[in-house]
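ARCHIVE CARD
SHELF: 3
SLOT: left
DATA:
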Amino acid sequence: MLVSAVDRGVLADEVDAAEDEQGSAGVAPWVATRGELADMMRQAKGYDIRAITNGIRLQTETLLRMIAYVEERVGVPTPVFVGHAEWFFAILDATGITEKQAPLSAHLAYLYKQDLLIDPRMDYVLNPGEHDPAPVAAANVKVWWLETPGSLDSYSYVDHNSDPEMKVTMRRVIKYRLLDLGDRIVCEDVEGLYGRPNSGLLGLMFRVIGEGRVADYRYAVAADRTQVIWVLCRKGPLSVTSLVTVHPDGHADKGVDRDKPDLVELRERLEKDVEFEYVPF
């Protein structure tokens, strides 16, 4: 629903903050309802949407469906605000699980009141001109919780289902560019998201240099719904890339099986350089 001055309710502070982010050229965002989000999540097929390792995929696919849904109703690309409570309870509705069974990443986002604003207006994302490959959709995404007395600057959790285990740290404000390139999803120009392996050789290295900033996150999906993820982390002058294969049940393995041509093709696709000129965000 499009938010109005008299229909803000408990979302007042969050929606005001979302509108502030749009600046003088902003428009009132569409406020996603719990029911709308749950409907978008139910369209996810072939993978476990409860798994932490499938969390970014679920979020991305849901957001892309949501902005298409809103544009169809409004007639033009429109920013969408997603409240933390609406997102969390939509997951419960879509999966049939209880609060205690919710994935850790979703539970923490709810506890920290982590809201989201996605702005799919292309002119606010990419500079004018031709882009190769041309995005099917492009958006600015901001994830944040309000700064209040006593509020923390960040929180962390460990994903025990990945190999190697990963520690993920969320700053209070996270920003990134979301690009749907048709055959892959690219999250670039990331700010506020950090991570490091907790085990293996990379774990030893990051234990020395500290957490790296996630600068670029990409994924592509095979016909059997297996997901290949490519991540670029930076720490000062150092940069490290990681490849992860996430199976539909959420189990993750480092690297890509060379005996599976379809996954190798996804890896090669993800490793291709892409260059986009972004509007300041």
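SLOT: right
DATA:
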Amino acid sequence: TLKPFDLDVPGDPSQAAFWVVAACITPGGDVTVQDVYLGPARTGYLGVLRRMGADLEVDEGAGTIRARSSALRATVVDGAEIAGLDEVPVLAVAAACAEGTTTFTGAGELRFKETDRVATTTAMLAAMGVGAEARDDGIVVVGGSGLRPGRVDAGGDHRIAMAAAVAALAAEGDTTIEGWESVATSYMGFEEVLATWAS
């Protein structure tokens, strides 16, 4: 069981998304992320998680997000909800832990990121025992069966590596992530926070 704790991370809401999802999908998860930029253009993922039933407390004035372990349910996510689509890989991890089938649509731009993130996100989930299907403009994720440890090839993509690390928190056993060094390209302190979480 995870003990509640506070996190100070840089103001990038995309970085906060990893810990928000991690809290939602781990038993006993209860995390407060501080000093986050919460402008409406960058927080579409919070609306998606709320729709999925996530237990969130957001204080826009203070820039804090508190997330707790939640019973998530499937939804349909339009890419227009997620500016830049950066949070889709970690939202797909949340979808893997939700009851039902979640569909991400209007997200064809994912194919032109650091990797083809439709393909790499789908492969990451499959490597961890989740039913997932790549579509031309998105991903279909079959939730409810749980995550299991596996070997994930992040393809040198930092967001896939970090999403896989979040998924590993909800999978009992050891997960190997190839291409882990890519995380340093966008979030230097991620590994330290992850170690705190896993301890």
